[in-house]
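In response to the reviewer comment on reproducibility (Comment 2.3), we provide here a single inverse folding case reported in full, input and output, so that an independent group could reproduce the run without further information from us. The structure tokens appear first.
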């Protein structure tokens, strides 16, 4: 019964040797991903113009999301109605 510690130590050593000898190639090459950064503030224009520009961009994104959501809902409704008939 006292031999279990020796067995455990041997198992750990064997596992460590195996782990060091195993060389696994990554399935995909590593690539660096460029993060989308908030565009820097253009200090040549006035702050009011910069704020207006950013608000306009935000509104454009919101309108696009609303259109996409409505288009998706309409297509799902058509699909459900077609499957009932």
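Designed residues, in position order:
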């Amino acid at each position: 019964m006292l031999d279990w510690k020796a067995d455990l130590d041997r198992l750990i050593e064997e596992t460590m040797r195996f782990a060091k000898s195993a060389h696994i190639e990554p399935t995909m090459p590593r690539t660096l991903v460029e993060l989308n950064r908030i565009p820097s503030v253009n200090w040549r224009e006035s702050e009011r113009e910069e704020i207006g520009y950013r608000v306009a961009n935000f509104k454009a994104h919101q309108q696009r999301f609303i259109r996409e959501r409505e288009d998706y809902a309409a297509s799902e409704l058509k699909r459900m109605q077609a499957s009932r008939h």
